[in-house]
Amino acid sequence: MDIALKTRTKEHVVTFWEKTQDEEIKRLFPFSIESLEKALTLFDESLREDALSYGKVIYFGGKYAGDIWCYSIDEIDEKMAMLSVVIFEKELWGKGIATEAAEAFINEVFNKYDIEKIGAFTYSNNHGSIGLLKKIGFSEIETFIEDGIESKYFEASISCFRDVADKKYRV
């Protein structure tokens, strides 16, 4: 598959913001950023040496298709980070792009940061995200209601993720 993870730029942040204002995407992904200005501020903060977030953009076939990032990176107490993956080009949903990008990105995050696990939230109606998380080694931890929406929380430890990668790629 022709997938590449590239460095995020301000132009990517603007495109991502515009693409994710789509109503169907909003129903599937728990976004917490209310404005483009806030998204750009968070991007600037992610460039600092002591940033608690780290992300890449996902290209498929030479075209910008989505973002993947970790946030709330904690290398001291919890030794974990939170994962978010969004493919905003809907015609690419269900083609394995997010799976391949997530596997590569998570491996990079586990090598870059001193963490032992990664968590992820998704809405309970986002069957694509739930399937992705389970496929790459995440376990469902709990279901809860937040802001009137049923959501799920998943986690994967570094050992679980590497076990899945070893079986898949015979590393």
Automatic annotation (TrEMBL):
Residues covered by the N-acetyltransferase domain: 14-155
SUPFAM superfamilies to which the protein is assigned, alphabetical: Acyl-CoA N-acyltransferases (Nat)
Xref: InterPro entries: Acyl_CoA_acyltransferase, GNAT_dom, N-acetyltransferase
Name recorded for this polypeptide: GNAT family N-acetyltransferase
Biological source species: Lutispora saccharofermentans
